[in-house]
Amino acid sequence: MRYTSTRDQRVSKTGQQAIKQGISEEGGLFVLPHLTDYRLNLQNLLGKDYETIAQNVLTTLLPDFNTAALKKAIQFAYHKNFSDRRLTPVRSVGDFHVLELFHGPTSAFKDLGLQLLPQLMRLALDPEDRIMILAATSGDTGTAALQGFKNVAQTGITVFYPDHGVSPIQERQMLTTTGNNTRVFPIGGNFDQAQSAVKDLFTDTGFAARLQAEQVTLSAANSINIGRLIPQVVYYFSAYLQLVESGAIELGQKVNFTVPTGNFGDVLAGFYAKLMGLPIHQLIAAANANHELADFLETGIYDRNRPFLKTVAPSMDIQISSNLERLLYYKSGEDSSYVAKLMEELATTGRYQVRPDVLAAIQADFAGGFAADAQIAASIAAVWKQNDYLLDPHTAVGYHVMQQYRETTGDSTPNVLLATASPYKFPRAVAQALDLPVTGDDFAVMTQLHQMSGVPIPANLARLATLTAQPKHVVAPEEMGQAIIAAAKEVFNNDQRVRSGNKR
Ligand SMILES: *Cc1c(COP(=O)(O)O)cnc(C)c1O
């Protein structure tokens, strides 16, 4: 089995090559053809812990990795770094279930992918490799990637985030990261500009040559890296098995998952789980006021020619859902030249329309919807009032769209809502939604919210207020390349520990 590119089916890579490289030379994303050939046996997974389920998913999708080494990597990533023994516990809230994905070191779901990706990357590297990880972040990816990659041998990580485009807590999480191989830069631009600039650098041969002169190659930690997507498949299986084990559903019964969506990585992992045999009826992709994706799921037209909006769910303030490209690949019958044509249209006109048969195939698995800021606030208030459960603004987007879906379709399939961040990561928006008198900085609001709700504050967030932040150094999008070269020089030339290849 070989990974290929969404834009060129002649590309053929092992899992290790795909993870190391991050993105294909011609700009496509790595995908595994015929995913339905890789079904898991649910019966065998019943009663197993998260790490064992992860082991099953990973050995299935990454068979070129050594099994014992994979097991160690999973253990290293997950054994001690999560505050809940089940990693991603499912809670019943009213008449639906919440899959809590925020018990990792940065309190957002991205920890599930980004604790494991660096370990997979390490296994994929040759002894002489020196890799600079590049990430553009709308907040949570950067934080989680910095935590995952800090002090990992043979790697450096450079993160760009939109200045004023992430929450104060997220910014503080990034600017207080330790580790001698980590670099963080706010950029003067929005997330899509940061992400496009990062994508351009990956295909810029002149830039690659300059890095090569430092004997450094680039790789990606955004959800376009297959090594980040695959770990996310695991919690869909875990959630389903937890529901069977608790008696909430029977083995084989179908469920719906509602997923707050930005780059389409999280919900795509759910689609992978479905192709691998998980009984999923509908995947409900929930967007905020930047709802290009929700419109696409309804009309088959993706059109990003509209204003970029800042919302109270900033990690979903995204106009181009990169991972949708992988869905287009599968839903077009794995037609890479068709996908290449659509992506070319998107790049040149900001718009494309899929064929009716492709749209129908997508709609067979996906529903969509969106929530504006007012609906997010109303959802946070309603769930607190009715169920004593605190939603973060991203999860609240999902809640609104899940309810809307249930009302309009009458579909009575059991629902699992993915909770993608702790409410304490976005305390101001949550407190305002609950009509609390909001005073002081975000840490003061965090405490107020805790006093009102009694919900514990995750230790990593409570600790943040006491850490010293590094000074901000804003760079323009056109200066990003230079910043990376400088970071590579410092990280790899000054750091004996990284150069000598010690494992952390
Ligand atoms: C990244 C993020 C999302 C969106 O996930 P995608 O994989 O980009 O669709 C939703 N909620 C939170 C809290 C996030 O950090």
Automatic annotation (TrEMBL):
The modification N6-(pyridoxal phosphate)lysine is found at K110. Residues 2-78 form the Threonine synthase N-terminal domain. GO terms for cellular component: cytoplasm. Its EC number is 4.2.3.1. It catalyses: O-phospho-L-homoserine + H2O = L-threonine + phosphate. Keywords: Amino-acid biosynthesis, Lyase, Pyridoxal phosphate, Threonine biosynthesis. Its cofactor is pyridoxal 5'-phosphate. Belongs to the threonine synthase family. Catalyzes the gamma-elimination of phosphate from L-phosphohomoserine and the beta-addition of water to produce L-threonine. This is Threonine synthase. It comes from Lacticaseibacillus rhamnosus (Lactobacillus rhamnosus).
